[in-house]
Amino acid sequence: MCALNASVWIFGYGSLVWRPDFPHVEAVPAWISGYERRFWQASTDHRGTPARPGRVATLVEAPGLRCRGIAYRITPGSAADVLAYLDHREKNGYLSRRLSLELDDGRRIGAVTYIADPRGIHFAGPAPLEEIARQIRQASGPSGANVEYVVRLADALRHLGVAEDETLELDAMLRGGAQSGA
Ligand code: SIN
Question: Ligand 1: distance of its center to the CA of 181 in Å?
């Protein structure tokens, strides 16, 4: 797929923002245009189970909007291993696509981006935010509680200067729920 020493970039907008877990030589905040982050993908292998699926982030086409994340440049020579690792990690209904990004330092690059397949069986689609929060509060899987996914992503996005995002709304609801013991 890739020449051995060519630069390969990965765009992370969900768990890859706060837990990339693969070797990289650069991590640069970035924007992807024409998409927004929504909690429209069910997770039955990381943050939920088949009996009680969680909800995790995907990118949804949204003309005129843009979504914040981090672009990682993979260590030269490890692209095949990293892509195999990510294909496995994102196997619960994500497809890898190459999309263009704008890095904060002005570079424009193409990056491998994992996006939920809207025709896949794990695509949960839109729902009222209260319902999504309820589902997240009740779900947990091999990677941990679904709430942790949202809280960690929200913290990382605030750190990246994001002020408006479905993640932040869910984070506020879930932290409120935790205080009231829900
Ligand atoms: C990503 O983080 O870019 C993909 C979705 C996820 O693993 O949360």
Answer: 28
Q: For the whole prediction, is pTM greater than 0.85? A: yes
Which residue has 């709304």 as its token pair? 169
Interstrand relation of 144-145 and 140-141 (parallel, antiparallel or unpaired): antiparallel
Q: Encode the chain (182 residues) as per-residue pLDDT tens digits.
A: 444 457 899 999 999 999 999 999 999 999 999 999 999 999 999 999 999 999 999 999 999 999 999 999 998 889 999 999 999 999 989 999 999 999 999 999 999 999 999 999 999 999 999 999 999 999 999 999 999 999 999 999 999 999 999 999 999 999 985 433 33
The first and second tokens of residue 142, run together, are 């091999």
Q: Ligand 1: residues within 6 Å at CB? A: 12-16, 56-57, 90, 114
Rounded Cα distance, 68 and 45, in Å: 25
Helix (H, G, I), strand (E, B) or coil at 59: strand
> Known catalytic residue: 148?
no
